[in-house]
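Convert to structure. Protein one:
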Amino acid sequence: MSHGCVDKVNRFTPYDGHVSRAAKCDRNIPILIGFLRQHQAVATPEPLNQHQHRTTSFLTVRVGVSSRKYGGTMFKRIALASITLLFAFVLSTVRTQAQGGWDYLGDAHVDGAQDHDNIHVGKHDGRFRAIQLRVEGGEVFFEKVIVHFHDGSHEELIIRDRIPAGGQTRAIDLPGDRRVIESVELWYGKARWEHRPKVALFGLR
């Protein structure tokens, strides 16, 4: 080793007169290397131990799972609400189609001794563009109907159709715009019935 090395080593090691300068340099090399290693250890951060690594990973996983869980819950709620609204709309449409959009307006029992009856409706039921007669309890031959409107006008509509028990007339259109029906006169053929048939009136808005 050169004298420069020995001089640097001598800064950390006292001079010993019984040992040569070359021997002192060789003996103090491990001390210098240890000193340098200590400084390098201080400058380099210690890696995370296994416990710290697991804790960090656990927190990361929990945050990710919570975010996905929250987003999934909101999506499920929105999907459920949409399905509920769609189901309600479909159910309402099916009911309307099944009923044909007809509103019940009243009924009357046919009297065999007479040839006509009257069904009172009233303005609170609204405006209609067509009517229909449905029969229960016996066959009825309808000649015509006279529809009286709330504005004082009326329409005489020819039917001339025999409707069996459980049957119904065609949709009878009312001329002009939708109007409020006050009452409907039923004109039918006389017959001998064991039980008086029932005629129900329905209106289409």
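Protein two, convert as well:
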Amino acid sequence: MEMVLFIGIQATGKSSFYLERFFRTHIRISGDMLKTKRRKELLVRACLEGKTPFVVDKMNLTRANRAAYIGPAKEAGFRICGYVFDSDLAAAIQRNARRNSTERIPEPGLRRANKTFEMPFFSEGFDQLFLVRMDGRDGFRVEESRVFEDKNSLDSKQLASAAQFNRQSDRYGKSHILADTQDVELGLRGVLVPSGGTALDVATGGGHTALWLARHGWKVTAGDIAPRMLENAEKLCMEAGFSIETRLFPAEEMPFDDGSFDLLTVRVAPHHFSSPQRFVQETARVLKPGGHFLLIDGTVPDDDPETEEWLHCLEKWRDPSHGRLLSRKAWEDLANESGLKVVRSELQPRKQPDLSWYFETAATPEENRKKVLEAVARASEHIKAALCLENEEGKIVWWWPMMVLLASKAW
């Protein structure tokens, strides 16, 4: 006895997938067909009482939506399988536009659904979870996935980051500013790839660092707290001809044995971490003796509390999942306290070319955008000088202090 839950926004292929995979074996519970909530409830009850396999062909975007089906199905002794459809918003909008007028969903509805999505976890009651992607040939590619691991260990900050980056994952593609990986190349200068060298890219995001590592001969595992980030990272690498492993986990609790990797990288993410100290301790634990740690992240000027506090408030308004920017000295201290030796740490300011672009990337609420713009307008001359904050051809630009730290673990 099996209940299948489809999970994904509109126009991602759910109904076509049902016809291809489950039409002959499972009853279909579909709002488009049954029209009313009462009819759906009656058919679900009939399937449960009659021990009949069925598919819930709905979006099922939130934990609450899914719980309404999982609880009764579990009580009836059903096995629960979830199929998570690759919810690439831009692609879904294009597919939706090709539908006939009676089936087409208003675009604002698609965008609202995308923002509503909450990642599924095994702890909700799933026995298996699968990722479903369209293969570009009117078919589907299905992979059983372990990325949806238990969320019970996630704290409030981690959950906020997971939700934010899951929603905004499509903004971190090839056009994202982090697609330029020159900082990775400079940061790893002098680090040689050992035979069979293994690398872990933590908080991989769009997968740009993971791809750089794969291209340079590393056997790469990419980790992130957001499942859709991992989907996109894997897709980016596959399109370039490289295979990587993906794992879902918070940076503060890595699901790997001691001494598993020759290299660990993290790039423009630690300011979101719940506990930078715990992250560095975990880094030291999973590195092999002689392994290297590359950290690239925004920082704040040492001994400049005015600029630090201004930048912290600005980032928190722009993206509420932001944690805290640490100074270069703070990161060096954390590395040393965890038994890592700092090889070098450098400041490489990165130009942020357009504040409006950052608003869109983070989906900054309108009221917070106003707060940021007011703070920019009121910034002191000291802050403007420290960050090279200015208006350039109608765009607000600044130079974000970027720290590149390379450390090693003793043999």
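Residues 3 and 383 are 58 Å apart (CA to CA). The longest strand covers residues 287-298.
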